[in-house]
Amino acid sequence: MFGFIGNRPDLGALVLRANAAVLRTKRDPEEPLGWGLGFYQAGEVLLRRRPLDDRGEIDLAEAAEDVRADVLIGHVRHASVGALRTENTHPFRYRSWLWAQTGTINGFDRLRGRLLESQPEFLRRNVRGETDSELFFHLFLSFLHDAGELERAHTSQEAIAAALRASVTLVDRLSAEEGLGQNAGDILVTDGERMLAVHRNGTMLVRVLKGKNDVEELIGEDSRQRVRIPSVESTHFTLIVSEAESVPQGFRALEGRSLVSLTRTDDPVVEAL
Fold first, then answer.
1. Residue 134 scores a pLDDT above 80
2. 170-209, pLDDT tens digit by residue?
3. Together in a domain, 222 and 171
4. If you average pLDDT over every residue of the chain, what do you get?
5. Domain match, 81 and 212 both
6. Is position 77 within any domain?
7. Is the pLDDT of residue 28 over 90?
8. Is residue 81 scored above 80 in pLDDT?
9. Which of 178, 188, 173 is nearest to 133 (CA)?
10. For residue 176, is it within any domain?
11. How many domains does one find in the chain?
């Protein structure tokens, strides 16, 4: 799973291409994979999802090479809950919100009903698939709704963070009531203006690209393209990657149990979850 947010939609695909090695996923011959991209383009929220891909390696940088966007979430799905169909493929969308996550809710088969009951009817009606991830997303939306933030044109970072923390806390409590341990996995959520990540265990990496030197690295030897890009000094992108196998040059690993806030123009802010 990965995401980026920046201030140059014309460079988004180049950010992925330059970091393609850390975004590729190799498929076990016995395990089918699906994938999805969610992004914002010309004021629209767009999804590009493929629930079943039998290639030996999934390269989402290649899948996004024609995308012109400054905010994007990508996800490769190991189908732990729910069939291989589009409705179960991340990212999930509600209005301007996009959500993807890794991991599975402990005891989900016993908790599904309680998670649905905790949500208002208009959100329950919007659930299309069978996954724990989609219900987790709608639980997050429910907390935003309870706080009076879901209908706002611009939701504050503080409100998003509070809803994420409340969702994680409730899901962990419900799993504990079933005699199960704390849940693992990471979350990415965005409204197109900011992106927040929940990192609980494993490896999550972040890389910031900004200014003239980083832009020239993205463009490489194409001097014609370099001439067409104005104001390179103000360029800013943050790329965040979950479940990476190594820490490539330019990336840094985040501590577990953390909440990460990303914007188009600022460096990441990392807090304790």
1. yes
2. 999 999 999 998 899 999 999 999 999 999 999 999 999 9
3. no
4. 92
5. yes
6. yes
7. no
8. no
9. 188
10. yes
11. 2
CA dist 248 to 149, 168, 188, 203, 207, Å? 38, 29, 21, 12, 10
Distance CA 211, CA 214 (A): 6
Across the beta sheet with 44-53, the strand order is: 44-53, 33-41, 71-78, 2-6, 236-242, 204-210, 252-253
Give the range of the structural domain holding residue 213, as residue numbers without chain letter.
1-91+208-227+247-259
- Domain match, 180 and 138 both: yes
Residues 219-271: tens digit of each pLDDT:
776 544 554 666 778 899 999 999 998 899 999 999 999 999 999 999 999 99
* Cα within 13 Å of Cα(150), Cβ side: 17
Q: Tell me whether residue 242 is in a domain.
A: no
Q: Which two tokens stand for residue 257?
A: 């149990």
| Residue 75 CB burial class (10 angstroms; 0-12, 13-18, ≥19) | buried
Cα separation, 53 vs 35, in Å, equals 8
pTM: 0.94
On whether residue 195 sits in a domain, the answer given is no
Query: Does 168 lie in the same domain as 144?
Result: yes
pLDDT at 225: 54
Q: What is the pLDDT of residue 227?
A: 46
Question: Do 85 and 215 lie in a common domain?
Answer: yes
pLDDT at 78: 81
